[in-house]
Amino acid sequence: MFDSAPSSPSSPSFLAALRARRLVAIVRGSDPDASFRTVMTLVESGVPLVEVSLSGAEAPGVLRRARAELGADAWLGAGTVLTADDAHRAADAGANLIVTPGLGAGVDEAVRLGLPVLGGVLTPTDVIAARTAAVTALKIFPASAMGGPTYLKALRAPFPDVPFVPVGGVDAVAAEAYLELGAVAVGVGSPLIGDAADGGDLDGLRARAAEFVRVTEEAATR
Known about the structure:
Number of helices: 10
Low-confidence stretches: 3-12
Helix content: 40-55%
Structural class: alpha/beta
Strand content: 5-15%
């Protein structure tokens, strides 16, 4: 139910990649060149699942540049996909993963295109609708505003087998708590990216990436 075809025969499924890496980085920047450098630095730092938000500056161009550098099989997501047109723009730019803040036309069109979807949910009603929509995994957003790890625990009671990915206000401490409570992965924006996608410090980004990789690798061994 919660899986999707890989983007190419040599790619593992996105759900398998989530379970193996347990971290999705979210890049939303005001500087396209800095956003591109941020994507590449993340991958080089051991964070291979990266989403570029369409709400960032010149996001399709960032996606095209990153796809050209990373190759056809790398997971490269487009985030903030709201409409069917957004889904097409993302796919045309080289995204092989669609991330949404909620359910709707963007999800439906991405599924029709055969792309894996990390679909945004918040309530039990949303979770049930996401099953019908055939999303690959469910992004709890905004997770921190709903109580953080305690909200994940509450949602997992009626939905123990659903692959949840909390997003929103996830720092390293919260990431560890979410993963201990059964999240398949976490999605992390500013606590990981900092100001890198706006032209800021890449060395700081590397240090934060190392911390998040440590947390997720330790969670994978438990």
